[in-house]
Amino acid sequence: MKIPPYRFQAPLRFRRYQRDHVRGLLAEALWELQSREAEIDQLQSEQGGALEDLHRATQPGMLNVDAAVMRRIHLGQLKLRLNDAERRAKLAREQVELCRKTLVLADQKVKSLENIEEQDRQSYLRELERRESREREDNWLSLNAYER
User: Fold this and answer.
1) Which helix (DSSP H) or strand (DSSP E) does residue 5 occupy?
2) How far is CA 29 from CA 19, 21, 122, 138, in A?
3) Can you tell me the distance from the alpha carbon of 12 to that of 111, in angstroms, rounded to the nearest whole number?
4) CA–CA distance, 92 with 140 (Å, rounded to integer)
5) pTM attached to this predicted model
6) What's the CA gap between 130 and 127, in Å, rounded?
7) For the chain, how long is the longest CA-to-CA vector?
8) Across 104-128, average pLDDT
């Protein structure tokens, strides 16, 4: 009993490909987000160390104006880098959310085609069973009609 090919086989294959592609994009977006968050953590710790250096350079009795100016410039640069990293992390979060929503839609499309495939398969099997039942009944009737 060979089941005929599914009528939406090509669209189902395409929808599965799209779903797998979106999964890959989601993985890339998650990796990007993770690397941006690690960069933010690293910059924040670097900023904390630079603040400590600035406090040490500006303590009463140990004032070093050149060192304080250099540390303030460094802190300003770190703040710019940190703002940029936070902006890129925000974009990465938005990308992750967009990929998740797209993945849900792609998965729903695949599921709907798989449900149609299963319904077609069940319909085919019911039709096959109905034909076989009718054939058995006809054979039985023909055998019993011959005996009379």
Assistant:
1) none
2) 15, 12, 40, 63
3) 9
4) 71
5) 0.72
6) 5
7) 127
8) 92
The tens digit of pLDDT for each residue in 4-15 reads 677 788 888 999
Listed in sequence order, the residues at least 6 apart from 25 whose beta carbon sits closer than 8 Å to its beta carbon are: 99, 102
| Residue 135 tokens, joined | 């054939």
**Does a structural domain hold residue 1?**
no
Whole-angstrom Cα distance, residue 31 to residue 144? 74
The CATH number of residue 117's host domain is: 1.10.287.620
CA distance 87 to 43: 14
Q: Which residue has the tokens 């974009």?
A: 91
8 burial class (0-12, 13-18, 19+ CB within 10 angstroms)?
A: middle
4 occurs within a structural domain: no
Whether 3 is covered by a domain: the verdict is no
Q: Averaged over 107-112, what is the pLDDT? A: 94
User: Is residue 2 included in any domain, yes or no?
Assistant: no
Q: How many domains does the chain have?
A: 1
